[in-house]
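Here is one such protein, fold included:

. . .
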Amino acid sequence: MIMVTGAHGQLASLTLDELNSRGAQAVGGSRTAGDGLRHLDFDDPGSLDFEGVSTLVLVSAGYAEDDRVITRHGAVVSAAVRDEVAHIVYTSLTGAGDHLGFALAHRATERLVKTSGLGWTILRNGLYAELFGALLAWSPGGLESAFGTGALAAVARADLAAAAAVVAAEPASHAGRTYELVGDPISADDIAGRLGVPHRTISLGEYRARLLSDNALLPFQPPMLVSTATGVRHGFLDGTSDDLATLVGRPLTDPLTIAADTAASTRAGQL
């Protein structure tokens, strides 16, 4: 049986949908059980039960400081070893993102998985096209961002879910592999052009100040978001790879369409 963690999250739920469409025996795990899901709380090691699970898709629980994320993932890997899970598929971060503010927890988890003694596959996921679109801000004059003219090899979340399902369904074929799952490079200017509005670049300092004044953000989030902006702005996140298209066996979803649609959907709430 395949288990996918974080089943109420968007990537995990899409992965479960993909597995179910392929007729795979799969179950989701979540802190809030129900709807056929197993109770699985990364902050409560006693709840981590992987009995009967042959392949575990560990979807990163990265919404916290590094120490907490690494502790969570370490508990999951230890429980997987205890319960004799055969293979772990970990949804990590693109190799081009080593400078990002949230990269360390991913690399530490990769090390935990690789040294666990279990079979493993690492999916180094690119940044979501949905995220790229959501990070653009609307003003009366159009779109604003700190991305400058830099591009991001953005990828649709659904394509990453499809790749995770392919690997989880036949883990032996992907054992010991690390895949770079990125899409085609797109820029904030491209998104603005698709929407027929101007794009104005703001400084990283102004962007950081805006983030720090946003009471909806947790303390660790502004540095993470600024690191993403400077990475895109200075051309560190635009590298491409054929791994994703090869795994899913079809053309990738157009990231520009996804990003533009996401940006458009936020317009009414910001103006």
User: Anything to note?
Assistant: The chain has one domain: 2-270. The first helix runs from residue 10 to 21. The two ends are 48 Å apart (CA to CA).
